Amino acid sequence: MFIPGKYLLFLGDVRDRLDAKTASGLIDWAPDRCLGQWRLPACGIDLGLPDLDFAEARAQGAKTLVIGVTPFGGAIAEDWIAPIAAALHAGLNVASGMHTRLNNVPAIAEAAARSGASLFDVRVPSAPYAVASGGKRSGKRMLMVGTDCAVGKKYSALAIAREMNARGMKASFRATGQTGILITGSGIPIDAIVSDFVAGAAESLSPDNAPDHWDVIEGQGSLFHPAYAGVSLALLHGSQPDALILCHEAGRTHIDGYPDFPIPDLEECIETNLRLARRTNPDVRCAGISINGRALPADERDEYLRALHERFGIPCFDPVATGAAGLVDHLENGGSGDVMADRQIVGVTQRTN
Predict the structure, then answer these.
(1) Which of 70, 69, 102 lies closest to 87 in space, CA to CA?
(2) Phi-psi label, residue 109: left if phi above 0, alpha if psi -120 to 50, beta otherwise
(3) Which InterPro entries match (predicted)?
(4) DSSP letters along 17-53, please?
(5) pLDDT at 342 over 50
(6) Which residues of the chain are in CATH 3.40.50.720 domains?
(7) Which of 147, 228, 258, 285 could form a cystine bridge with 248, CB 3.0-4.6 A?
(8) Residue 251: pLDDT above 50?
(9) In the predicted model, is pLDDT for residue 350 greater than 50?
């Protein structure tokens, strides 16, 4: 999907930075396309971009207003409709990753028709998908799995794929959510697929490939999430991963938005994901642990990663603060990735780019 850039990022009236993960992901992984931000007065976050109105954004070269927030349920709020329509009248295209389709909102569809601007629904599947076959495919696959939603699965996959590509390895980032699709221009919005076909869509996302090629697959949800475990399981089965990366946010104690559901022990998370992944790939292993350490000071983060490595014997890294060099070193050096089997010490390598 080609969406014209540069982007003006719509933040609406969200008050939690976690709800702006689409905008944050674009700023971190496609900064050259992010021109400014647009906020309602009640918005409680600032992503550090210039605040531009729609005319200013157009004058500075913006082509598309991107809905940069992902509220619970994925609905377009009533208070957003008028400004989105105004952006269209100002000549901006609009791209959205909401479950609500832009064309299904009459005022937005009418504004697009009158202005001639385009609407892009990133969360709409572009093709039908078959029921999963369960057949083994050539190539290698690495899937990010999480202790919860919004713990760094997308960032981990992007960091790993970037590190592999920088070394000349054959690797492709495979997006499964709207932000990843906006960053790379391709992928499958896996949580918008009818449930019977999610595993089949995951098979389609990572087809047969060269024996030394890695598909680095963005995960979704968590097997331990009371609402989103279904999509996580189907993605786990359809991806047939050879390697899993467990993603976790340091300090998170319960499922976000569900205080009665504590985060399980990491051992339980790894064991459960491996047990269920073996349904379609008996040789799957856990190759590493990715930590979102945004809440930790640098010295505490490094010690946290070292302690995890000592505990599990596999590479432990922060995709933003340290990058994925240690994990890729481990894979290139022949580490099997079996939990508690590989005792190679992988140092914390500070990211230089």
Answers:
(1) 102
(2) alpha
(3) DgcN-like (IPR011669), DgcN-like_C (IPR035086), DgcN-like_N (IPR035402), P-loop_NTPase (IPR027417)
(4) GGGGHHHHHHHHH-GGGEEEEEE-TT-----SSPB--
(5) no
(6) 7-121
(7) 147
(8) yes
(9) no
3-class SS at 343? coil
pLDDT of 335 reads: 65
Pick from 191, 166, 171, 167: which is nearest to 181 by CA? 191
Joined together, the tokens standing for residue 159 give 């960091």
3 state SS of 227: coil
Residue 5 — pLDDT band, cuts 50, 70, 90?
confident
- Return the residue matching tokens 């490094």: 302
> 244 in the Ramachandran plot: left (φ > 0), alpha (ψ -120 to 50) or beta?
beta
Residue 259 burial (C-beta neighbours within 10 Å; 0-12, 13-18, 19+): exposed
Structural contact between residues 27 and 154, judged by C-beta atoms closer than 8 angstroms: no
Write down the pLDDT at residue 339: 43
Rounded CA-CA distance 192/189 in Å is 6
DSSP string, 71-134: -TT-PPPHHHHHHHHHHHHTT-EEEE-SSS-GGGSHHHHHHHHHH---EEETTS-SS--PPP--
Mean pLDDT within 282-311? 96
Q: Which two tokens stand for residue 193?
A: 């697929």
d(CA 199, CA 129): 9
Q: Answer whether 220's CB lies under 8 Å from 178's CB.
A: no
As a CATH number, domain 140-332 is 3.40.50.300
Domain ranges in the chain with CATH number 3.40.50.300: 140-332
Helix (H) or strand (E) run with residue 231 in it: helix 229-239
pLDDT average, residue stretch 52-59: 97
Q: What is the mean pLDDT of residues 89-101?
A: 94
Given a cut of 70, whether residue 346 has pLDDT beyond it is no
State the maximum Cα–Cα separation within the chain, in Å, rounded to a whole number.
Answer: 63
